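Look at one record.

>
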Amino acid sequence: MNTAADLPRAVPLQGASNLRDLGGWPVAEGSRVRPGVIYRSATLAHLTEADVAAVQALNIRTVCDLRGVEEAERRPSRLPHGAERVHLPIEPTVGASLRDLLEREEATGEDVVELLRRAYLDYGTRFLGAYRAMFALLLEPGRHALLIHCSAGKDRTGLGAALVLTALGASRETVMADYLATDRLWRRDYAVPPETPRALADALLATHPELLEAALDAAIAPFGDMSGLLEHGLGLDAPRLERLRGLLLEA
């Protein structure tokens, strides 16, 4: 059995990073997420032939691509035979604003974090429908194993994984442990403009737990509490939530 020190279980690849199994994370009442059912990663656009074979060995049936329309068109995913890509676009909002920041000599890492904050709040509110669609796919056993990804596998994917773990009964501590694993598993191979100052690039490419907390709180707010978010925001009424947990959990 995995211990907390072993988690998350990463899948090493040559042309991608930050691919890991959500399996093993502890949730409510002594249960754990079932291994080999749901994965998360950065972009799959640059997989080598060996990588494609490694991903195929995971029995991935469904890939939820959270990248925006132009992102996905510029760097199409390489998928193994038998995997279906389902595009659930969450448009990035940082790029244009980052370019504006780069024109200001006094721009700081704190300015970048504020851009990211606005983006995270958008993910948890304006784009909540993408995550609702992700849960609908997770409720179909024939869709497993299912992988969710964006470009870095950090922000949009981070919120998606946080919502899944929370729905399954994980504590905020566990949710944040999974989120922070990106700092050691992602190779930071996301392209930033070459003229980006180091402090700004570091802020853009790092994890920010306080922003994930804010996104979760913003997602909950219109529905009153987590139960309301699950039922009315994400389509997980009591029978569907029980079915989800039956599919994704093990004792």
